[in-house]
Amino acid sequence: MRRTFSSEERNGILRLALSQILLWAGLFYLFPAMLLPLEADLGWSRGGISLGVTLALTVWAISAPVAGRLVDRGVGAEMMTLGALTGTAQLVALSQVTSYPVFLALCASMGLSMTATLYEPCFALLVLRYGARARSAISLVTLIAGFASMITFPLMAWLTARYGWRPAVLVFAGLAGVGALVLLFEQRRQPARTARQPRDGKAAWNLKVLVPLALGFSLLALNHGLLLTHLLPILQERQIPGTQAVLIASLIGPMQVVGRLFLVASGDRITNITITAISFAAICAASVLLFAAGANAVLITGFVMLQGAFYGMTNILKPVVTADMVGQAGFGMIAGAMAVPFLLAFAVAPSLGSFLWLQVGYNQTVLFTSGLAAAALLCLMLAGRQANSL
Questions:
Q1: CATH fold of 1-195, please?
Q2: What's the rounded Cα separation, in Å, for the pair 8 and 90?
């Protein structure tokens, strides 16, 4: 970082990283952390609450291309600030919700705030500002933001036990508000520049590569989203004590950081496609381990370590591997298109998990996630084979 970025540039990247950890904690990880408190207090079904999460993620997926175009037009910083402010207000409203239809409406509107503030527009801004240096900036942001779950799960559990879930959500609204202020300051220090659009994006649209590649990463998102959303209920069903379950779940974020540190440290010694394939295989093994773990907390922790570390790598590897396979021509449009099925898979995951829980139970659901990761690995291998044949 010292040799690559000036002091002011580093400070700007750190400000974006701070906003990301606060907004991921409040807008994304809050949903799985509050699933059980909502179910216990309001009497809504687990499937009904999960439907709200699915709705939020669906809106995020559908609106992602629009957010990308706004970044391309040079108003990405303003969009992120407005999204963070809106997300803060939505969390305040969520803390007072008593009506299920209002809850669903809030979830849908929070999907727009996610679109405007989380990784995709942030990474696009970094690419716009730093060009070839953006990979280092993105790595730093993801390293810091990876601790978001470690903030959300323990803090939500402690606040809920002491004060109730409504005051707890207000605290997270305050965190999101701090993130909005950080973005406002960053916007004024480093206003966005006009983006340069590639003249020809048609050459990169090789569907024989892109379709299996997008499908592979989307299946992996379905795997992770399902396990993440239902991890606390899974551990509760296995009689893991509440405090211990929260501690185990909170390790997902830090393990993502560990994975990203390993990726940075590996440099060019392992090719992008090889480390991606290893990550997919490790995530498949993680689900198998969770299936076999039963109530063994050590094995469950092993699952979290594998799942967190290797899924954390894929957030960085996805755009890199895509560029390796199809080139950089029209890459912005391609990345936006690939984000849609990826986010939709995340959107379906909570409700699919609730459906499978009702139909076959959590043990078979966990086994199903291992099949998703195995299928994702096969899709990745097919995409690589098609890319090599060009």
A1: Growth Hormone; Chain: A; (1.20.1250)
A2: 32
- What's the chain's average pLDDT? 85
Domains 1-195 and 203-390 share a fold: yes
* Integer CA distances (angstroms), 20 to 71, 90, 137, 142, in order: 17, 17, 13, 8
d(CA 284, CA 377): 9
DSSP classification of residue 24:
I
In the predicted model, is pLDDT for residue 1 greater than 60? no
The contacts of residue 295 (CB under 8 Å, 6+ apart) are 238, 239, 240
Closest CA to 79 of 148, 20, 125, 110: 125
Whether the Cβ atoms of residue 347 and residue 309 lie closer than 8 Å to each other: no
Specify the CATH number of the domain 203-390. Answer: 1.20.1250.20
Candidates 29, 68, 27; CA nearest to 180 is 27
DSSP string, 326-358: H-STTHHHHHHHHHHHHHHHHHHHHHHHHHHHH
The answer for 195, left when phi > 0, alpha when psi is -120 to 50, beta otherwise, is beta
Candidates 46, 21, 242, 40; CA nearest to 152 is 21
Q: Which of 363, 148, 173 is nearest to 249 (CA)?
A: 148
Q: Which two tokens stand for residue 14?
A: 């750190």
Tell me which residue has tokens 């799985």: 32
Query: What pLDDT, in 10s, does the model give residues 50-87?
Result: 888 888 888 988 888 888 778 777 788 899 999 999 99
Helix residue ranges, H only, the chain: 7-23, 30-33, 35-42, 46-72, 76-94, 100-117, 119-130, 134-145, 148-163, 165-189, 207-237, 242-250, 252-266, 272-293, 297-326, 331-360, 362-388
For 37, residues 6+ apart whose C-beta sits below 8 A from its C-beta are: 156, 160, 165, 168
Could you give the angle at the alpha carbon of 211 between the alpha carbons of 29 and 308, nearest 5°? 30
Q: Which amino acid is at 127?
A: V
Encoded tokens for 376: 């994702």
Distance separating alpha carbons of residues 196 and 187, to the nearest angstrom: 19
